[in-house]
Amino acid sequence: MSEVVHEQRGNVAIVTLNKPDRLNTISQSMLHELSGALLACDSDPQTRVIILTGSGRAFCAGLDLQDAASDEGISRGGFPQGTKIDQRNFPTIVLRELDTPVICAINGGTAGFGIDLALSCDIRLCADNAKLAVSHTKRGVFPDMGGTWLLPRLLGWSKAAELAFTGRTLNAMESELVGLVDRVVAGWQLMEGAMALAEEIASSAPLAVQAAKRMMRAGLAEGFADHVQHSYLQVQTLIQTKDFAEGVTAFLQKRPPSFTGT
Question: If one looks up domain 206-252 in CATH, what number appears?
């Protein structure tokens, strides 16, 4: 059985971590499979939004320690000391670089690498029975898969430091309060809520949504004046699209727009 399952529902792709018997812990093969699935979704013009979730009672409980202990696993065979990581086979980097918006539907327990994976998504919905553990320092490491870059930006320095240093576990409501997740819903409503949000995003002009994501990402490393100039150039491309004409026409005709991504 595949460790990562990809399902298409209209303009929404659902990518599911599918190793429930091991709480969707990440193996070396799963890294490659997940990255490939995400890149395939991003290159598919039908896909306007991606939902990332897990099967069973966990979203992702971190690294698969049995796999890591093997000669071909993440710790030994996967990333030998002193080598550079393969960015196209590294899901947290892939997630940050995708133009397609990604919603993380956190269906259960999330820890270690799972935290970094969730934080790398654009929006996070969380089941009310989920727990999130920024537990890296309890295992002798730190949030090294992007967490130390993401946490201060999402939570502010002080709260990020508190969580990263203590390795604390938070319940769903606490996670929402500090900003680890954006919304908490009843577990049985999680995918319904994620799909509703995804379909709302998918109803917007896809090229404009992708450009907004690219520019938000670029803005993290640009000064204000440079960013406005960069944004202006992006808009010059968008106003030549059929979707821009459709958006203006639909507004004037007082009807919902029908965007094609062209």
Answer: 1.10.12
d(CA 98, CA 90): 12
From residue 173, alpha-carbon distances to 24, 190, 191, 215 in Å are 23, 14, 18, 31
Cα separation of the two ends of the chain: 37
Of 146, 142, 19, nearest to 91 by C-alpha is 146
| Alpha carbon of residue 7 to chain centroid | 16
Give residue 86's pLDDT: 64
* The model scores a pTM over 0.85: yes
CB 2 within 8 A of CB 33: yes
Rg of the chain (C-alpha set)? 19
Q: Domain 4-202 is of which CATH architecture?
A: Alpha-Beta Complex (3.90)
Question: DSSP secondary structure string, 123-180?
Answer: EEEEETT-EEE--GGGGT---TTTHHHHHHHHH-HHHHHHHHHHT-EEEHHHHHHHTS
Collapse the DSSP code of 105 into the 3-class scheme (helix H, G, I; strand E, B; otherwise coil) and give the result: strand
DSSP 41-53: HHH-TT-SEEEEE
Hey, where are the domains in the chain?
4-202, 206-252
Pick from 72-81, 202-211, 230-239: least confident: 72-81
Which pLDDT score is estimated for 20? 94
Tokens of 67: 């796999």
DSSP summary character for residue 63: B
Q: In what order do the strands lie in the sheet with 123-127?
A: 4-9, 12-17, 49-54, 102-106, 123-127, 183-185
Question: 72: Cβ–Cβ under 8 A, 6 or more apart, which residues?
Answer: 28, 78
Residue 80 scores a pLDDT above 50: no
